[in-house]
Amino acid sequence: MQSTLDPRSPDQLQQWAARWRDELLLNVLPWWRRHIFDAEGRVLGGRRNDGRELDAPRSAVLGTRLLWTFASAEQRLALPPGPELDWAWQWVTQGLTDPEHGGVFWHVDAQGKPLATHKQVYAQAFAIYALCAAHAARPDPEQRAVKQALGFFELLQAHAFDKADGGCWEGFTREWQPLPGARLSDKEPPAPKTMNTMLHVLEALTELLRHHRVPAVEARLRELLVLFMDRIWLPGPRCFGLFFSHDWRVLTPQVSWGHDIEAAWLLVRAADVLGDAALLARSRELAVKVADAVLARGMTPDGSVLGEGRFNGRVTDDRRHWWCQAEAVVGFWDAWQISGDPRHADAAWRAWRYIARHHVDPVGGDWFKTLDAQGRLVGTVPKAGPWECPYHHVRTGLEMIERLTP
């Protein structure tokens, strides 16, 4: 693999696009087809790095992201219809969806029996996102997927958004009553509002608006986009805050460079789908600032992106997570497309070279999910699990194929 990339060379860009296509079609997607469903098409809890089945709850995060992955790959790579999309569709709409109160459960067991019945807003966002992808892949005259996505949005409209200060809350009980202290994991501090949840609500509403121009969806997407630029972005430390009070006081000095570079390009995408020229200009300007900040503080000389740090620059997680590297590729390339600054194109290429050297598993298939600072596998993190899924790297592959192909 060449050490440098000329971002203005059509031949090199086509070669890189072909490499991404091969990675998805020959390595990533086949692994997930073979290893994440049981004989009856139900989602497994996961797989360890040695291929053994992982005995874990079936998370809404994994289930919805599988539906998004197989639907998006089928539609955007023009693949013949496969059973994986049908299995994932059935799992999300029957195994994860609450037939009584609506929304998706946080965790279910192997048969789809609820284990954690609360309604995490993060998970509802991914359900909307996945249903939109299913509609794009296999539209039907009744528009079942879009109607279900709109139903999930209406639940968020009724319960999740803060009418006083804007943004959305983290979680609710099964019956959609407020659930103080709801959070994505025990690793996170209690916070009524988080950047991560709002980023993926914004991402979901972007796709919902793309497929169905509903004024209420447009209004909420606009609100979130402005909040990201005016409240969640912190000009002083040059990063997005992660955890907030209800009135937008930042609660911790944490920085997640992976989330920063991911948000940079998703905000541009949201503004573009909104069709608002002023917000698009603002988001593009911010995307370049974010890329510069991540390049200066969160990217190492070997091309990898660090886990987390503090406002003062201190690194608190020096592991290399697959999703951070994937988001760096598309985030820096997006910045290059905006700025024309060769540093951004080089950063995207270096992130890819790190992925190819360390995360890609050419023997077992798919990618290793977490490495230590020396690029060695962290064996306690499975290849597939409640959080370990194909969404980030498949999405980056699809984005880069489209962006690199004339």
TrEMBL record:
InterPro entries per UniProt: 6-hairpin_glycosidase_sf, 6hp_glycosidase-like_sf, AGE/CE
PANTHER family per the UniProt record, alphabetical: N-ACYLGLUCOSAMINE-2-EPIMERASE
Name of protein: Mannobiose 2-epimerase
Gene3D superfamilies assigned: 1.50.10.10
Keyword Isomerase: yes
Family: Belongs to the N-acylglucosamine 2-epimerase family.
Keywords: Isomerase
UniProt-listed SUPFAM superfamilies: Six-hairpin glycosidases
A matching Pfam family: GlcNAc_2-epim
